[in-house]
Amino acid sequence: MVVLIVAVGAALLPWPAFAQVPPHAPGTICFTQFFWCWAQPPGPAGYPCGCPSQYGFVPGYLG
Fold first, then answer.
1. By C-alpha distance, which of 10, 6, 42 is closest to 24?
2. What values do phi and psi take at 13, rounded to 5?
3. 3-class DSSP state for residue 2?
4. Residue 21: half-sphere exposure toward Cβ, Cα within 13 Å
5. pLDDT for residue 19 is more than 90
6. In the predicted model, is pLDDT for residue 16 greater than 80?
7. DSSP output for 4-56
8. What pLDDT was estimated at residue 43?
9. 31 φ, ψ (degrees, to nearest 5)
10. Residues 49/61, Cβ–Cβ less than 8 Å
């Protein structure tokens, strides 16, 4: 019973957006603090990048 309660509780926790990232080659996705976008252009993993949003350019890193 306790295991079931813990499992249900874990399922209801908010998980980071990176859990929804599709399979990709390293350096082709830009990760920001709250979301990700396809890198334009791709580059080495760990390099800075940015994603457009309704509020402007959001900095991130290639992954």
1. 42
2. -70, 145
3. helix
4. 23
5. no
6. no
7. HHHHHHHHHSPPPGGGGPPP--TTSEEE-SS-EEE-SS--STT-EEEEEETTE
8. 96
9. -100, 125
10. yes
Question: Measured between alpha carbons, how far is 18 from 40 in angstroms, rounded to an integer?
Answer: 18
Q: Give dist(CA 54, CA 7) in Å, integer.
A: 36
* Lookup result for tokens 């990709």: 24
Predicted TM-score of the model (pTM): 0.68
* Angle in degrees, CA 27, 52, 43, rounded to 5: 15
| Cα-Cα-Cα-Cα dihedral sign, residues 22, 37, 29, 45 | negative
How far lies 24's CA from each of 28, 39, 40, 55, in Å? 7, 11, 14, 26
